Structure formats: C-alpha cells, structure tokens
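Translate sequence into structure tokens.
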Amino acid sequence: MRRRSRLGGVLVMLGALLGTAVSSTASAQQGPQNGQGGADMTFQPEGQENAAPADGPPSEAMANALRLYQQERYQESCVQFQRVVENETGDAAAQIQKAQFHLGKCLYHLRFYQSALAVFDEIVDHQGGRHLYFGSTLQWLAQLASQLPEPADIIRRVGRYSPDQLAQFNNAESRDLYNQLLYLLGRAKYNDGNFEEAVNLFGQVQRTSTWYVQAQFFMGISHVRNHRAQPAVESFTRIQDALNEGVRGVEDTGRMNDLAWLERARLYYSTRHYDSAVEAWNRVDVDSEYWLDALFEESWAYYLQQDYARALGNIHTLNSPYFSNSFYPESLVLKSVIFFSNCQYDDAETTIAVFNERYGDLRPELQRYLQQYSDNNAFFRFLKDVRSGNASLPNRLRPIVSSALSDRTLLRNIEYVTVLEAEERRLQGMPAAFRNSTLGARVLQDISVAKSFATDQAGDLARGRYQRLLDELQDLQNQSTAILIEILNARRGNLSSQIAGEQSRSINNAAARVTADEEHYLWPFNGEYWRDELGFYRQQVASRCGR
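Result follows.
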C-alpha cells in the first residue's frame, strides 16, 4: 500500500507552478495600437549597437530604409530592409547583416513579435555566433521575453550566450536588463540540467530587481534537483522576506507567499521533518488556490506521525460539499489505509466501496475522450473547449477533466496560440502594400509555422496531462484492490510480519484521541458542514489491533 507520487514527484515539477506569479507576460493587446511603435525597455541608444562597421557604403535602398527607420516609419522601412536581406539591392554582406538586425527591430516595433523572434533567431544561429549583431541581439531577446509567453522558447535562445557576453549590460544604465538576462540565462542552464551554473546565475540577480523573486524561486528548485534541501529552504525563505519588504515585480504577492510555504513544506516532508512540514502547510492561506493541496499533502504527514484524527479531519474537509468540483480521490485511499492501520477493517472496506462508487467506472469513460481526440490538433481544440466551458462532457466528468487540464504550463501554451492569432489579425489589418510584399509573406509564414508548432505542442502536453490522470486513477484502483486483499489476509490471520508490526504501533496512540485546549472546544459533527469549520475537523479513531 504505497502512496502514489503526488508528493514524491512534486519537487521536480516546481517550475510549472511558478506560472505567471511574477512579471507575467504581456498580452497581445499591449503597446501602441497604431502599428507605428512598441514599448521599449532600457536599451542602448539606437545606432550605438556593438557591431563592426559595415564594409562599404550602403545601397540607395539601404540608406532609405535607415532614414525611414529613424523617422519611425516602420512599415515602409521594414519592406526596404527585407529587400536588402533578400539580396535584391547588391549590398555587401555586412550591410545585409545590418539590415537583418534592423528588420528584427522594425518587426518588433510593429508588434509582429513572432516574426521579430524568427529574425533574431537567424542572427543568433549565424555561423555559431559570428553575426556582426550577435551581441546587440541579446537585449532584444530580453525585450521579446516580456512580450511573448514562455512557450515561445526565448530562454533557449538566450542560452546560446555566455555569462561574459551579458557583462556588457552590467552598468547603471541597464542594470535591470542585466538582472533579467541573468535570470533568463539561469533558466536556460536549469533547463539543460546545469544546476550549479543556474544557481550561480540566479544568485547574481540583485535583491532590488523585479526579477529577484523569480530567480530565488528557481534557485530553490535547482537546489532541490541537486538534493540540497537546506539551501532550497533558504531560497524560499528569502522570497518570503523580500515579499514582506515590498519587493518590486510581483503581481500576486499572496499567491507567491503561499507557493513558498508550500514548497518549504514539501522539502521538510521529503527530509522527514514532519512537524516543520505541518507548520509550513498550515501557513498556506485558506483563500489560496493551493489550500486544498496543502490540506491533502498535510494529511500524509499526519498519517506518518500517527496523528490519525487530524489526517481524517483534513480528508473530511476535502470531501465536503463546498469542494464538490475538486478532485482528491487519493484522500479516500489514505482514509482506508488509516482505518486498516487501526484494524478497523469494516470501515476500511466501506471507504473502498465509496471510492469505487465514485471513481471506479471513471477511467473507461475518460478513456473514450482520449480516443475520440486522437491527434494533438484535435486534442488542443478539446483543451480550448474545456477551458471555455464548451466541451461536451457529462456533469460528473467536467470538474475532473477541467482540473486535470488547468495547470499554468498548459495555460501559457494556450496564451501563446492566442498571441499568434492576434498577430495574424494584425497582419490582415496592415495596408495591402505591406501584406502583399515579400515581407508580408514572410510574416505570415513565421506566424503560421509558430502557430502550427505551438498548437501541436499544447495538444501533446494536454494529452500527457490527461493520460497522467488515467494512470493515476488506475494506480489508485490498484491500491484499493491491494487494501482489500490485505483486509482479507488480516481476517484470515495471514498478515505479513511487517504490516502486523505497523499495526501494532497504532495501539494506545495518544495522537488518535481528540481533546480541546483552553482556546477551543469540541462541537460534534451532525452531518451539516459550516464554512468556518473547514480545516478544523478532527475524527477520533480507536485502534482495534490486538483485541
């Protein structure tokens, strides 16, 4: 009767939790609405990028494109830069590279962020970093990271730079940009599994920066991946200290604080410091989106401490009518394990019967939808329908599927497709001369390719989440069957010595008794739930082992 990997695997999934807790990506509607300019961060002055001088004078078309750019006539200059890039004007290689860099900037100002990213990606990839504007492109990647959601994979592009190449921005004028780049490069190292390098980069982000909390969060995760619990706890504690001091750059300080407590609790739990884990879980706010997760996870700590009354009380809360749309089937498995541990076999059997009644036939029904939407594009449409409430699902399945497909990684992928669709509409609203030019064709292709990939990726990710739901249900059904087998063995007197020994530990367990201190009093549960009682229930359980 092992517990499934809800806690065991959660530490490798902390990054998905971060989501948009701090400095969320900009929506497709940000920036100027006239198509003639975009919001910039603190950049080097235009025209002072670190690049070698072009070899030879520019063509008339190139010179005209530069004049138009300086006049902020980005639509016209974009078309001219594209002609230079396509080698229609006879410019030298250095001028073509300069045109390519300015083309990316033009597209950014026109808010064709995906196409700008495609241009800058070509620059970064050029002959292993030998493009004249390789260094100057870095700051524009940082700018794009604030405009495109994370699935656009800008972090991977920043990962092609070395820490030394970031140093050009380590000055008073571009300090925040430097901190952002340290964070992005740290994320790239983390994604590559280079946790030591990631920690070093995250540790350089200044406490006064808007990127500090994000950096500390991923520093904590990096320590977890390196099996260093104490430094990880220190990282999450620094987040809470910074939040208490009013750090900049955090949209939802309450959510971020709850996340830090949640991760601290999981770390304490993983190192068997159960009292500290319980204390941390209890600090998650009752109004938090993570409160039910905290209650459930805390129940396992109570169980391992043989504090069965509190474990069962938490499970009682989780299964109250107030949370009918929540999905914690494992709580019933844990409840049956507690009864089994106390030799209350009838109650254990009854709990398994309740589990089977609620969830026993779910898996085949859920499986049909996985078969119905058999490819990634179809499943992406299903995902969008689920998120919008338009999916054709039975009422009993709707909250379960919605819960399985609601994590922030999935939502960021949906957001990315939405941003690309907005750029498609923006292109359709451009003048015909722009749309019908080779540049217009390029922008359309850049968006279409990215949208096709993003849709496929989001659909694949959603299918993986859905399959995980099916696998977890099967695992829980296997566990419930195993409990029934052990109940049968117990009644026949055939329990293994190990299980019998675990049962004997629950005899005369003081923690199983429910008592009230001077600040509380006992109020018997009469079948009616009250909101202010949620989280405070206790269920006394007496061991029948040895009787």
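Note: Confidence is low (pLDDT under 50) at residues 1-43.
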